[in-house]
Queue: 4 jobs
Job 1
Amino acid sequence: MLCANKVENSLSTYEPHACVVIYSIVARASFQHAEETLNYLWREGYTQEKSVIVVGNKADLARSRVITTNGKALAVARDCKFIETSSGIQHNVDELLVGILKQIRLRESRDKKKKPKKENNKLHGSKTSLSLNIAREILQKICMNDISKSKSCENLHVL
């Protein structure tokens, strides 16, 4: 219950665009805490509304690993992204930071497409407006067409 209160307070205070749930792959207690946090976010619908990334840290300590594939399985079950990092040797740290931003942008882009646009200008419905919209769509497809279209929980470049 303490975990839920802390998460709830943080979410209501900061209203984040994304949430990163981190656990240590060498400490079962940290994984259990991360699991509680993720379950709370899932129950409250946060994982459906915002980007949530599960991070298994200390990947460089493979010999001391306690948590094997549980983190990835948990992320898949809760419709979240997953990545393993090592802050000690900077493994996947940049990928995580870029992935967080990419997830926020993808989510915002998807949400904008869902909302009907109100165009109050004189161009609405004109050939110029249609041309601008087509050009905008083409540019978005070109700019967003990086990496692959994989829906893998480990691909931070797609929703």
Job 2
Amino acid sequence: MPTTLNEQQETIRKFRSIANFPTVIGAIDCTHIRVKKVNADGGQLYINRKGFSSINVQVVCDADLKIMDIVTRWRGSVHDSRIFRECRLKQRFEAGAFSGILLGDSGYACTPYLFTPLLNPTTPQEERYNRSHICTRNTVERCFGLWKQRFRCLLRGMFGDIETAKKTIVACAVLHNMAIDMREDVFPGERDSIEQYSSEPIVQRYIAPSIRGNIRRRQFIETHFQ
């Protein structure tokens, strides 16, 4: 994650250039990486709602699709909101380490530092907020697509032991960032649609916003989307 004020301001500037959504420092989401069936005690906890064994990987990316933060320790049955609720990054936001906010989907609770889309926008301002939010947050979906195109093991699944799988996922994230820094394209002939390799997205249940998050989002919309 960007640490200095200059780094944070540059990250915010790049996100704002996408759809004029201010003060964004990262886009957050989770993706399921398939693993082989775990037969040990607790193995059933790796089975996600699509019915296959996986690791639920949390990623925060920047506007350049680089992975700034990654969590790989959670089993597939664990909900996205719990992964964020118990991660160190959340503690850093609550401690005021960053000047910007995260954008997430409705699988997360809306908080003062993580904004989600409005479930039922009723005004032109709320509709503008939602359109800008969706377009800006889409960077993390594009990040997943590019990451998995570069490293097809993330699409097909990991078939070694769980600990090796976790380390491999992190290594792929580091190499993905290096490839972006070096402006390296995906391999020729591998620009085919990622959907044919990946399973259908897992629909997240709606998480009600916190009272503080709701108030902060309302103030934000009134200030920036009039």
Job 3
Amino acid sequence: MSAEMEDFLKDTVNPKDLEKFEKNYRRELEANNVSHSTQFEYAFCLVRSQYARDIQAGILLLEDLMTRHADGKRDYIYYLAIGNTRIKNYTDAAKYCKAFLQIEPNNTQVLGLETYIKKKVDQESMKGMAVAGGAALVIGGIVGLGIALAKK
């Protein structure tokens, strides 16, 4: 499941689709009348962009929709989890997975995403411990060298 999730998270939006939905969104924004569906479609494309800045913009649009349009909350939460995972914001991604699973406890996609996030957090923790351990060895070596030189 993890390899499938990895592939799913790497899948990006077609730039022509992004451009099309952005034009729709901007047109409605200029008219001061953005529909929930237009904002969602644009946010959906943004969170699937290859660029972190686009993903963050999509997350903001989805968060806005969550506060103003309860009917789509399930979809908004799901793509908030996806977007946050794609930019490696695992804390928020896990929070959205938990919120989604309260609505739909047996959703296999979200359960798989939650498992993927936990693995990534564990990997990041191991990397952090390895870096800290390596830094301690370097400092210990420098201190040891300093002591050896001081004795001469």
Job 4
Amino acid sequence: MATASKSCGVCELRHITKPSIVWCTECDEGLCTECNEHHSLSKSSRSHCVIPFTEYQKLPADILKFTQYCTKHDKKYQIYCQKHECPCCSKCIVESHNECRDFVELDDVIHNVKTSDAMCELEETLAEVSENLKQIRKHQQDNLTKFKESRKGIETEIKKTRKKINDHLDKLQEDLMKKLYAEEEKENSKICQLLSSLERKETEIAECQRNILNIKQHATDLQVFLSMKKIEDDVYSKNKFIQSLEEDKIFTKTSLSYKINTSIQNIMSDIRSFGDVRIETKSCDIVITRKKAKQAQMMVPTVQSRPIENITFTKQNTINAQGNSIYGCCMFTDGRMAFTDYYDSKVIVFNMKGLKDFEVKMPFYPFDLVFISEDNTLAVTSGHSRKKCITIIDLEKKQIKKTISLDSYSYGIALKDNRLIYSAEDKGIRMVNLSDESISDVVRDKMAFENNIATFRDNIYHTNNETNTVTCYNLQGEIQWTFQMKAY
């Protein structure tokens, strides 16, 4: 039923209007004092569960839509179709599910649903999202305060500098001040908009948590079960919102900076600008916790994993790489392969049959490479070459497309969400955003010479040929585990 009637259901059939004092979850209707007394004594209904009508009305409107009876046939739900993920009455099975095979008793599905693992996961995820939103909001509020303080400091310095020169700089000072306030206003607007969104999301999560509490206390097992998937979808959308903020680097540390023209003190006639104001963006230290991205199903079959000891390799083919110093290799989505020939300074591409397709001469010693399917390119590291860079090769044009300059050597490289992750030796493990070529640190510890990197899901795997170890990091640079190969 869409909305619960406040009048007693039994009395309404007798054309009498009396207020309901309790709600029977089995009969799916309200009962007045007299009818409730008869209901509790009747053999057919004495075992029914009733709750105070005032408590029943506290349930969310969406939950009240779920009833024990089929809205189409007015028969009680008895079976659950796992294929369509919906409860069915006896007529539903005949009319709409005659080809389905995965049926289970509805009572078995909803048994102990309020204390199930799925409900616990849902509550934990809600708490997790709420905490993440609070962290981001606090970070942005602190950032806004520091941003204003840095603006005030810069403003003071600008005024001090201005006093040392003559009236010729009045117009230039005015222009720079306007630019300063404009940058501050633009950034403040962005932060305030984000804070508004975060507060709204927090309110939604808090409401969701209150609903969960009411559902667990007063809703039927069926109502709880059917509402969980909808709440999970809401939680997933909030998680996606946080993920989009993280991927787009929206909640980053920002500050105002400036640079006074050094020529002001001596050659005023050559001055063309008072200085410069820009926004400096740095990676923030917020760690977003994620227990899971989204639980796909409430009932997922268990898949037996294969022990690593039982995994065997079978030799499929041998490729003559036509080089004396093959260091790196990668596979393309179309089956082709690419290798780096370090000392011959070239990248060689082979077709699926192992025959050479083409090669690209490199201006350095290429160490490792990774395939970027989004734009059909290769990213190649420069190893211990004098030229420190990552070079992008266009596979369609078979030539170098562009070069990303670095301030460190680069060895092993991997791709994660349009970001290149590479081993930077003394600089640790770094990440390059391909969208704007900005570089950020993942691990700041000094790394050994000529190491390799791989990624899987949200983890980074890094080799160390000096200690014969493989270390697993998360994307925040925290060590998850280290494996050491035994010496032979």
